[in-house]
Each structure stands twice: as C-alpha cells, then as structure tokens.
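Q: My labmate handed me this sequence with no annotations at all. I'd like to see what the chain might look like in three dimensions before we decide whether it's worth expressing. Could you predict it?
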Amino acid sequence: MKVCIIGNSHVGALKRAWDNSLEASFKKKFSVTFFAARGTAIGDIKIDEGALVPITPSLQKVLEFTSGGKKSIVLKDYDMFFLYGLGINAYYIKDTFYSGAVVRQTVADIFEPRLANRILSMIRKGSSKRVFIGHNPMPVHAKSDTIPLSEESYNFYANGTSLSNEHYFSKLNCELVMQPKQTLVGNARSTHSRFSKGSMKLDVSAKRSGQLHNDLDRKHMNEEFGLIFLKELFEKFEESYESEKMAKSGALRRLLNKISRQKVR
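A: Here is what I predict for the chain of 265 residues:
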C-alpha cells in the first residue's frame, strides 16, 4: 500500500520512527513517502495537472529532501493520504445532545479556515482516495504527568472525534484520527512529558538535520511517540483498504449479476 504523509514539523516524529524504529514487517506492507516542511511552509503549493507542486524554490528543496527526491506530490501514485498537524486541534463533545447540523457547522467553522482544509481541497481535485487527518499533538504539561487519564474526559474526546467524523469528515471521504490513548494523561488534553523529551526538529536539509527542540518546547513529540502513532495509523489504513476492496468486489459482483440476468432475458 502506497501512503503519502503531508504535514508540518509534527511529521518529524513519524518520519524518525519510520526511518529508525519501525519493524520491518510494516515496511513490507506499506510504502510511505513524507512531504513535510517546518511551520506553514507546506502551504506554498498548488494543484497542477493532478499533482501538488511547490511554488517556491525553497519548499521544493525541502520536499525533495523529506520525500527522498520527489519534486511534487503526484496524487495518482498513492492509495491513501494522511495530513498531520497543519493547525488542526482535537474536538471534545460531552454526552449532551447536539443535532447533526450543529456538529457539522461547528466542525466546519473550526476546520475550514485551516491549512489542512486547503490541502485537502487540492487533493480532492485530483484524487478521490481516502484521506486521514491527524490533529496537532496535545501539548505537554508536566504537572499532568502524575494525574491518571480521566476516562470521562477521554470519552468526551472520543465522542467529539466520532461525531465530527459522522457529520462532517465522512462526507469528504476523510477520517479524523485520535492521538493514541496511551500517550495521554489527565483530562485527555495533555501528552505525558516522556513523549516529548529529546524531540527533534523535522530534518529539512543535510545541514538542518539532527536538531533538538529547546527544553521549553511543549508541542513537539519524539520518536517513541511517532512509533506508537504510526502503528495505530497503519491499523486504520489496513482496515480502510480492506473495507474498500470488499466494497468494490461487492459492486462488481452486483454488476456482473445484473449483466447475467439481462442476458437471460
């Protein structure tokens, strides 16, 4: 399965896990190409003849580096897409009734101004393939490390994600994914600090590689976090891919049965 991961500096944790830690068994099933840049630089792209193309020389050099030499994102080359970071935050909804229209409008108001939505819109002009979206990692609050994860708060997070998918993202053939539960603490709005310690900046060139985030950084995660996230993500990819294959197979069988019946007549 060919996977395209697009994002900002948060992709760094995933890429390091892919390069250094992930078991070979996953790499037999998946081929992953990373297109990422620090900050909002990934926004300097446009859609052109079925590809996302950098509009600045600086971004082109960065994407060539993170992707292993590719000059553009040729959409037809991939079976699945994952957009990570890009200004998206988690959604929390308590066990209170909200109409589908209210949920849909709330998510739209939050999501549509974000860079992730602009990139998704460009992808949709050249591909109907499934797109998964990951919000920014929950920040680290060291005081929360000693507070066990609240199941009630986690359920608000899970409920918000589920309703967002049901009423908004599913209409776009997308799915918002949750941060792995084992990385969360407290009220499900914080990541345990062990997953941020030693985090490194996204490598964007030979000279700008292997750089640590400063000790005060609370938003970027490390390779251990990336490994846990990738494994959960790949499970979702497999489920989605198999489900799509079964749906296509079923549609083909129905078509063949219909043709067969017509011939009998």
